[in-house]
């Protein structure tokens, strides 16, 4: 999968389109995506909402797994574990996601989300997910 194909894949998800998350790099089993921070992504204390961070990680892990599946199949999240390490403050969130172990029916993935401000990066989230590989006609 090349970067243009991955961008189209992100656009297939109305929620990701609405958030404005964009992939910036892709290689087999690896995806990097960014999300510019907006006020609407903040919770009551002003930090990035955990749900926004988790969404970025989840979709990026699924996209990383999608780069390795056979044509005619989708990847869907079957299990998701998130650890929020510290408050996320910054101009944008950057997610790096990768496949730990690909499989024919299940793939195991991990991700890290970083908050960036003026070029400095702070690790704010670690995640792991099990992705189910299903035929295109099943959702």
From TrEMBL:
It is an enzyme of class 3 (hydrolase). One of its GO terms (molecular function) is fatty acyl-CoA hydrolase activity. InterPro entries: HotDog_dom_sf, PAAI_dom, Thioestr_dom. Signal peptide: none annotated. Residues 46-118 form the Thioesterase domain. Pfam families: 4HBT. Keywords: Hydrolase. CDD domains: PaaI_thioesterase. It catalyses: a long-chain fatty acyl-CoA + H2O = a long-chain fatty acid + CoA + H(+); a medium-chain fatty acyl-CoA + H2O = a medium-chain fatty acid + CoA + H(+); a fatty acyl-CoA + H2O = a fatty acid + CoA + H(+). Its EC number is 3.1.2.20. The keyword Hydrolase applies. NCBIfam families: unchar_dom_1 (TIGR00369). Belongs to the YigI thioesterase family. This is Medium/long-chain acyl-CoA thioesterase YigI.
